């Protein structure tokens, strides 16, 4: 009996040692303007599919490659230096949303203006910034977004716009564009008292 207990304890400690030996310590780095950030006020941090880490600040966007920062501002084509959200679409473009409702993206080493930016701004205007994490670009370049005024729209690549709505608008407080890798984007009501949801 004692041998069985000793054997069991030995196995337990061997397993415990192997688990703790494989546990990783992840380094933590604190970045400031002294390290190359354009500002200490950072609104969003995002790692893209190539491993770059992007920082959206109140003074432009910074891309970190593991060694140094590359800062992009209005001189580089950024339409607003106040970048609140950064998002990568299925084709690898890096999108930036801003306080001024101007929309642009990073592709082929440069920042480009979204071709339907004026249309986008006209629908967001008055509602101000879009809700965080409520912006999505699908594989066919349709852009779906939710405004602070609880409105959700989709602009296709031809510049045609569509509004999503529920059968009982008074019961819906807000929409949120939800995107997951394993299925297309869908709309999620953040607050609802009805179970029926209609998406045009």
Describe the SSE topology:
Elements (H helix, E strand, L loop, with lengths): L1 H21 L19 E6 L5 E5 L2 E5 L4 E4 L10 E6 L5 E5 L5 E4 L2 E4 L3 H8 L5 E8 L5 E5 L4 E4 L5 E4 L10 E6 L2 E7 L11
Antiparallel strand pairs: 1-2, 2-3, 3-4, 5-6, 6-7, 7-8, 9-10, 10-11, 11-12, 13-14
Short characterization:
This protein has 200 residues and is mostly beta strands. The protein has two helices and 14 strands; from the N terminus they run αββββββββαββββββ.
Explain what this protein looks like in three dimensions.
It is a single chain. The longest helix is centred in the first third of the chain and has 21 residues, at 2-22. With 200 residues, this protein is mainly beta. A hairpin with a 5-residue loop joins strand 9 (130-137) and strand 10. The model is unreliable at 167-177 and 179-200 (pLDDT under 50). 14% of the residues lie in helices and 36% in strands. The strands form four sheets. A four-stranded antiparallel sheet has the order 1-2-3-4, with no helix packed on it. Strands 5-6-7-8 form a four-stranded antiparallel sheet, with no helix packed on it. The chain is built from two helices and 14 strands.
- Helical content (DSSP H or I, runs of 4+): 10-25%
Strand content range: 35-45%
Poorly predicted tracts of residues:
167-177, 179-200
Rounded to the nearest angstrom, the radius of gyration is: 23 Å
* Average predicted confidence as pLDDT: 74
Per CATH, the class of the largest domain reads: Mainly Beta
Number of beta-strand segments:
14
Which of globular, elongated, flat, extended, rod-shaped describes the shape?
Answer: globular
Q: Compute the number of helices.
A: 2
Largest sheet: 4 strands, antiparallel
| Reported CATH architecture of the largest domain | Beta Barrel
Overall number of domains? 2
Distance from first to last alpha carbon: 70 Å
Biggest sheet: strands side by side, in what order? 1-2-3-4
Question: Which structural class do you get from the secondary structure elements?
Answer: mainly beta
- SSE topology string: HEEEEEEEEHEEEEEE
């Amino acid at each position: 009996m004692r041998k069985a207990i000793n054997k069991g304890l030995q196995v337990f400690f061997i397993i415990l040692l192997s688990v703790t030996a494989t546990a990783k310590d992840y380094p933590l780095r604190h970045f400031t303007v002294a390290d190359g950030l354009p500002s200490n006020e950072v609104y969003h941090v995002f790692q893209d599919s190539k491993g770059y880490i992007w920082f959206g600040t109140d003074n432009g966007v910074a891309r970190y490659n593991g060694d140094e920062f590359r800062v992009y501002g209005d001189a580089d084509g950024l339409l607003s230096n106040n970048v609140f959200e950064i998002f990568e679409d299925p084709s690898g473009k890096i999108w930036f949303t801003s306080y001024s409702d101007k929309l642009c993206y990073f592709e082929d080493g440069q920042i480009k203006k979204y071709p339907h930016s004026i249309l986008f701004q006209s629908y967001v205007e008055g509602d101000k910034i879009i809700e965080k994490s409520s912006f999505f670009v699908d594989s066919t370049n349709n852009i779906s977004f939710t405004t602070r005024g609880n409105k959700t729209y989709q602009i296709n690549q031809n510049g045609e716009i569509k509004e999503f709505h529920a059968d009982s608008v008074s019961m819906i407080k807000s929409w949120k564009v939800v995107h997951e890798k394993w299925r297309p984007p869908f709309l999620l009501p953040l607050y609802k008292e009805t179970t029926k949801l209609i998406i045009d």
